[in-house]
Amino acid sequence: MIFATGRISLFIVARSNWNVGVETLTVQAEIERKIRESLSPDYLDVINESHMHNVPPGSESHFKVIVVSPVFVDLGRVQRHQHMNALLADELAGPVHALSMETLTEPEWAARGGQRMESPTCRGGSKTHR
C-alpha cells in the first residue's frame, strides 16, 4: 500500500508469502553462513545432531560445531565459546536447544590429527524410561 500525504510518502509492505526468489535458509545453513562470515574458518563442520534426541523427525534443534579459525589464536576456551554464543545468539534464543562446540586453532586441530570428538548418546531427556 502506498499512502501519500503532501510531500511524504509512506510505503507499507504487508508480510506475506510473496518471497519470490528469496531463499529461506535452514537453521544449519544460517549457522554456517554466520560462522563463515565472522570467523573465516580454515575448517568448519556444522552437524545437525537432532536425530540423536527425543525431537520430531526433521528437527533442527541440536547442533555440533567444529570450527578451526585464526580468530581463536589469542583466546582461551571460555572466550572462544563466549564469542560463538554471541555470534549465534539469535539461534540460541530461538530454534537451537543445544550447541556443542569445538573451537580450535590450526595447530590445535593438527595436533589432534584433524579428528573431532564423538558426541555422547542421548541420555533420554524427557523419554519415558522402561
Structure report:
The protein is an alpha+beta fold and about 130 residues long. It has a domain at about 25-110: GMP Synthetase, Chain A, domain 3, CATH 3.30.300.90. The protein has 4 helices and 5 strands, in the order ββαββααβα. The chain has helices spanning about 25-40, 75-85, 90-95, 105-110; strands at about 1-5, 10, 45-50, 60-70, 100-105. The strands form 2 sheets. The chain has a 3-stranded mixed beta sheet with strand order 3-4-5. A two-stranded antiparallel ribbon has the order 1-2. Strand 1 (about 1-5) and strand 2 form a beta hairpin. The longest helix is centred in the N-terminal third of the chain and has 13 residues, at about 25-40. It is globular, with a radius of gyration of 20 Å. The termini are far apart.
Main traits of this protein?
alpha+beta; GMP Synthetase, Chain A, domain 3; three-stranded mixed sheet; two-stranded antiparallel sheet; globular; disordered N terminus
Which strand order does the major sheet show? 3-4-5
CATH architecture heading of the domain at 24-111? 2-Layer Sandwich
Based on secondary structure, the structural category is: alpha+beta
Give the strand tally: 5
Q: Kindly estimate the percentage of residues that lie in beta strands according to DSSP.
A: 15-25%
- Evaluate the radius of gyration: 20 Å
**Average of per-residue pLDDT values:** 77
Task: Report on the biggest sheet.
Answer: 3 strands, mixed
Q: How many angstroms does the end-to-end distance come to?
A: 59 Å
Number of helices: 4
**Highest CATH level, the class of the domain at 24-111:** Alpha Beta
CATH topology of the domain at 24-111: GMP Synthetase, Chain A, domain 3
Q: Provide the low-confidence segments as ranges.
A: 1-20
- Which bin fits the share of residues in helices? 25-40%
- Output the helix-strand order: EEHEEHHEH
Shape: globular
